[in-house]
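cache lookup: miss for this entity combination. No prior model stored, computing from scratch. Input as submitted by user K.M.:
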Amino acid sequence: QVQLVESGGGMVKPGGSLRLSCAASGFTFSDYYMGWIRQAPGKGLEWVSYISSTSTTINYADSVYADSVRGRFAISRDNAKNSLYLQMNSLRAEDTAVYYCAREGRGYSSMDVWGQGTTVTVSS
Amino acid sequence: DIQMTQSPSSLSASVGDRVTITCRASQTISSYLHWYQQKPGKAPKLLIYAASILQSGVPSRFSGNRSGTDFTLTISSLQPEDFATYYCQQTYITPRTFGQGTKVEIK
């Protein structure tokens, strides 16, 4: 069945780095835009980034990041491996959240498939 | 950035009640407005996309409507499994902003 599985979360000190991964299955990964959304403890959803279906790298200058992460996070994908990534650098306490990967479906870029989430904790 | 303002932030309702949640965009977003349901400890689930189109498998008691930059999610007869937090999201332009959420609780 259609599935997204995130991994790579954990605890990191402020200023540190983490790389999140999202493994896709059950659909043609290379046909879809993909995105990352996060949710801080007890808070609402925050859109983080998206990547087009064929793009492999995104320049920091592109408008595909939330202001809160632009210049620190980098989204990428490997269509041969059906995988999405989020490289997170210069992490701050306010980046602590559950990070979800999601598929942008055909319907006006709505997010129609979500992973279960991976938890990132930034703390000294 | 486009601001999405949801109201109310929370509500209490009984099983069988009709519930309406509103989301207002700070500028035009055409019909690029979607509704999600999230239960505690779970990932969000798409309910309605493009303002009024029901996602496959979602019960017909859920409906969405658009009037200009105002959007509504209506649950015609609240069921026990509908107690959750609901979010709107615009995907008209980036950043693809979410509303702050509406928590639907049991009265």
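stored under new cache key. Strands of chain B lie at 4-7, 10-13, 19-25, 33-38, 45-49, 53-54, 62-67, 70-75, 85-90, 102-106.
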